[in-house]
């Protein structure tokens, strides 16, 4: 409503105040915020009014309550010689905001009921002040509808129209009256209304209801004018043509139903209001599909898979993931990234806040026997500065299951899931006990998982060694075997025996190992007085046969390959170098 400033009499109205250009400024305030809102004039069209022109404003009621509206009128230019003149004038009024009486359910103008039914009339004044109900005497239809002091409307067997008067006296002294027409009529048709909504992360509607979704439906009845009944006594029946796909649960009032989807497929629901009248029925299709996509590739133990679903709650928030068995799938509940640990069938759940969920049954195939693929252009060597020797372990895993992973899911795979922790890599050495202990300390096999290719591998690194150990191993022709498998491919007893028993694994590979040669001499001095020097290089036949010089100023004039220790197959290479 508008509020404006007046003078001491009616002649000093806003017309005269508005002629005082730049003489006064008007400032408005409220004693209690939230009850009223002060809005400048012309704000709805984007025009701002200065304080010198704000002698008129609008106030909008925001909530019930009492507040004080105050205006302060200030003089913009004050005559300092006149000390008796005040620099401002104030005034305030009390404004009471009351709540308009309304029905809490249905329309405040009309109520449509069927014969022999009842309806509880409720308004927003029931708990605030006394409310009285009576029927107007001037309208025909007296006795058609009755009402008690609690607001319960009851209809008889006849049809017709009556006018109900609802009277309330508020605590502020304001009387409010509602005139409501109550019409008693017969139902002409029924409609199935789906109450449960399905929200997705895109603007497109889903092609079907999610598998596992709880769908709440209501049966709404209408008269011959298309008006909905607020109350009726019709016993509603609901049936489905495929009771193997859905489960029907009837509420106590028999007006709403809960449809629990159990299997994918098409179900037709029928709602019937009168068994003797087949036309008082409605039919609706319920098409149910999994809302969690099928894995792209074959899912087997050792695979990493990214589950996804387009479903969100009403606020656009995503749900959480869960599985029926964590022994089969190791699931990250926030992103839907899972690691297949064991074979079997598991149910993947996607749950939203509020209780709604969808699910999908997933089968994990048994793990494949590991197949080793060593590098074709490298040999394993115990040289400390050698780069890692990588052997790919093919478990028949598929990269297709991670092709659609989001950035958040990739981060979880690399930082939290750690699939490589499920791969066991072990080295086994064919050597006498002293050498075997040395080799176990030198070589270290570490599992690795490449998230881009979904491939596993064992990386063999060489630890630093003393000169004596290098000399000892340089002439030893030893065998090294690599064994690898998933943890779930081992029996519990076999886990305790690692890494001493290679036959406990399902697969192993003999690595192409060649010991590094060893030269005890680390420095020689050649000159014109001593142009010749002899060095001894220790190594195996295969290693020494490929020995070459890479120093351009030194040439190998002659060399001899001697079998110095036949019992140990130790070879040494004696060469003469010339300057």
From TrEMBL:
Record-given protein name: Uncharacterized protein
Domain NUP210 Ig-like: 1-97, 196-288, 292-361
Annotated source species: Cyprinus carpio carpio
All residue ranges annotated as the NUP210 C-terminal Ig-like domain in the record: 388-547
GO CC terms, sorted: nuclear pore
PANTHER family xref list: NUCLEAR PORE MEMBRANE GLYCOPROTEIN 210-LIKE (PTHR23019:SF1), NUCLEAR PORE MEMBRANE GLYCOPROTEIN GP210-RELATED (PTHR23019)
Superkingdom of this protein's organism: Eukaryota
């Amino acid at each position: 409503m508008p509020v404006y400033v007046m003078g001491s009499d009616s002649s000093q109205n806003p017309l005269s105040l508005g002629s005082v250009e730049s003489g006064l400024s008007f400032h408005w305030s409220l004693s209690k915020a939230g009850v009223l809102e002060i809005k400048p004039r012309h704000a709805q069209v984007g025009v701002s009014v200065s304080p010198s022109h704000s002698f008129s404003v609008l106030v909008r009621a925001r909530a019930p309550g009492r507040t004080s509206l105050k205006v302060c009128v200030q003089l913009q230019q004050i005559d300092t010689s006149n000390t008796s003149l005040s620099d401002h004038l104030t005034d305030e009024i009390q404004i009471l905001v009351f709540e308009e009486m309304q029905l809490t359910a249905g329309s405040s103008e009309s109520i449509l009921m069927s014969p022999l039914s009842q309806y509880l009339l409720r308004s927003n004044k029931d708990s605030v002040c006394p409310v009285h109900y009576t029927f107007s005497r001037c309208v025909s239809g007296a006795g058609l509808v009755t009402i008690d002091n609690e607001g319960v409307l009851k209809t008889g067997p006849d049809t017709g129209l009556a006018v109900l008067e609802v009277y309330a006296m508020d605590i502020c002294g304001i009387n409010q009256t509602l005139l409501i027409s109550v019409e008693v009529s017969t139902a002409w048709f029924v409609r199935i209304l789906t109450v449960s909504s399905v929200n997705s992360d895109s603007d497109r509607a889903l092609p079907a209801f999610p598998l596992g979704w709880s769908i709440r439906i209501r049966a709404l009845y209408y008269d011959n004018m298309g008006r909905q009944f607020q109350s009726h006594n019709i016993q509603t029946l609901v049936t489905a043509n495929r009771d193997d796909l859905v489960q029907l649960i009837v509420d106590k009032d028999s007006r709403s139903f809960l449809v629990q989807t159990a299997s994918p497929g098409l179900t037709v629901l029928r709602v019937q209001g009168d068994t003797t009248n087949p036309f008082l029925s409605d039919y609706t299709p319920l098409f149910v599909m999994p809302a969690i996509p099928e894995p792209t590739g074959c899912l087997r133990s050792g695979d990493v898979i990214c589950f996804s679903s387009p479903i969100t709650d009403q606020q656009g928030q995503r749900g959480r993931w869960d599985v029926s068995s964590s022994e089969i799938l190791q699931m990250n509940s926030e992103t839907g990234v899972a690691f297949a640990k064991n074979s079997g069938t598991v149910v993947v759940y996607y749950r939203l806040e509020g209780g709604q969920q969808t699910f999908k049954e997933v089968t994990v195939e048994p793990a494949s026997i590991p197949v080793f693929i060593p590098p074709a252009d490298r040999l394993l060597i115990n040289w400390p500065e050698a780069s890692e020797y990588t052997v790919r372990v093919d478990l028949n895993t598929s990269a297709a299951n991670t092709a659609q992973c989001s950035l958040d899911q990739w981060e979880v795979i690399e930082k939290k899931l750690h699939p490589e922790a499920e791969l066991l890599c072990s080295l086994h050495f064919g050597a006498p006990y002293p050498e075997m202990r040395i080799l176990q300390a030198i070589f270290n096999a570490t599992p690795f998982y490449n998230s881009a290719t979904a491939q596993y591998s064992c990386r063999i690194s060489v630890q630093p060694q003393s000169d004596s150990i290098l000399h000892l191993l340089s002439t030893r022709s030893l065998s090294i075997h690599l064994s690898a498998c998933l943890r779930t491919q081992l029996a519990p007893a076999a886990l305790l025996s690692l890494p001493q028993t290679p036959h406990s694994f399902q697969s192993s590979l003999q690595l192409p190992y060649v010991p590094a040669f060893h030269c005890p001499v680390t420095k020689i001095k050649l000159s014109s007085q001593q142009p010749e020097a002899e060095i001894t290089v220790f190594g195996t036949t295969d290693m020494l046969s490929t020995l070459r010089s890479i120093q351009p100023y030194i040439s190998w004039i002659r060399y001899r390959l001697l079998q110095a220790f036949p019992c140990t197959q130790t070879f040494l290479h004696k060469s003469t170098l010339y300057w």
